[in-house]
Amino acid sequence: MNIWQADFYRSPQQDTTGQVLWELLICDANRSFEYVASCPQKEANSSWLTAQLELVSGEKLPDTIQVFRPQSLSLIEAAGRNLGINVEPTRRTLALKQWLEEKQYSIAIDKAPPAPLPENLWGEQWRFATLSAGDVETAFSDRPIPILHLPEFLKPLNLGLPSTAPVPGVVIYGGRQSMRLARWLHEARPVSLNYITGAPDGLVLEAGLADRWIVATFEDAEVAAAAKVYQQRQQLSQKLHFLLVQPDDSGMTYSGFWLLQAED
């Protein structure tokens, strides 16, 4: 599969007349292919992008273009529709971000304060949990789970984790709302679930390109101690962790499982 990573945003450079420029950068995952083009801000639209994608691709269009910047997404999606290219919003455009940093361009994304989960999605209870790295894939890959997010690049074996390494996670018992919560999470595209200290402490879900959601809050000292262990174990698992949604604690039925990894 031919996958590109792309960014289309205001450039820190200006043209000779002082006009603001927008710059298009495209690369593949190992940067064996790189492409740069720019245009005046007044020409920065999907038509210009479509023409550039046709120009650089020749006769072989990419299967997918990955985009990490929310401000770039709608324009690249429109150009993708014009050419029949799938556009994937994802924070994991590592090669592109490395390239932008080398050019000393900003990759910072403005994020709003975390919002509470909609009340109709709240689970009945939740807890911290741990799986051995060797069990992460085998425990769920063969089960009939409606929503299963186990990307190859996050599987413990592919990260080089020992099979005995503890991988921390959070289990939510959703009760009657279990499948509704799992479907909502699937659409939100979870990235990581982080422990945030405060008054009160909480668990914040990073999702999509810039979304943040409050999954739980707590003031209990015992829960806070468990949360610190959860965060410490992430440091030992290359930030790998998981989120499991199930109706109850019977272990008979699961609604959704996500393998996650916090951003650097």
TrEMBL record:
It comes from the Bacteria. InterPro entries: Tab2-like, Tab2-like_C, Tab2-like_N. Residues 106-261 form the RNA-binding protein Tab2/Atab2 C-terminal domain. Residues 3-103 form the RNA-binding protein Tab2-like N-terminal domain. One of its GO terms (molecular function) is RNA binding. This is DUF1092 family protein. It comes from Tolypothrix tenuis PCC 7101.
